[in-house]
Amino acid sequence: STAPFIRRHSAMISLGGNNQFSGVYAKLGRCKGIITARHCADDFLATPHVALVVKDVAHKLLVDTTDFEHLRIAYDETDDHPTDLSFLIIKDIILVNIIESEDHDFYDLAAFDKSILMEIVNGTCQRFNWCVVGNPNVKVEEQKKIIDGKVENVAVSVFAIIQGSFTGYELNEHAVDYITLTIGSGFEDFPNTYQGVSGGGIWYQRFITDDVNNYRAEPILAGIARSQSEQTIKDGWKVRTIRGHGLFAIYARLRKDLVD
Question: How many helices (H) and strands (E) does the chain have?
Fold first, then answer.
């Protein structure tokens, strides 16, 4: 299963109550941090403290937002449609150690196979082995629990890996790319809205084989979710499209901006 690998690299951030968003723990060289949507990072840095969700049991990990450096990726404020991608670099090594001690890991952006990008650009990728990962706010429950003898307000978050199908890749004139997935919405366990999943990873669960009999799945971070469409009907099913920045923005533009 690819779920444990994806879970280790997924970040969940709470601004209080059901106001939460998602991200991906990642590293490039000695820099470790959270890749997320820029509009999420802006909300993150507008408050003095946020909570990171790092365990499956009730806990409180409040972090100072001054412990992060905000790198806006391929951002041009004069552009009518600026990029919506950020890297929140963690400056506090103690916080890095805490995150890693809770069985999280930072996805290595340097270990990237360029042939995977070409599969996606050329449309030869496997179209149904995709997912978006994050924390749908509609799934968050606020409860009161007694912790250490005190009544505390607890937000119970749901970490969701939601399967979808690849439906598009675009590279615009500013050398910024986008990935689009079609995904169920509002039936069975599919959330009615994907608010809160913004900033979460779009993963390509690439099946590879060394022979004709044995296959394994290799999760590749292929995008960062930034927006959702209106709900529509496709082939009798309620769906939305999830759009996010793609591999070129994550691997090439981030590296360039970090060096600059």
Answer: 6, 17
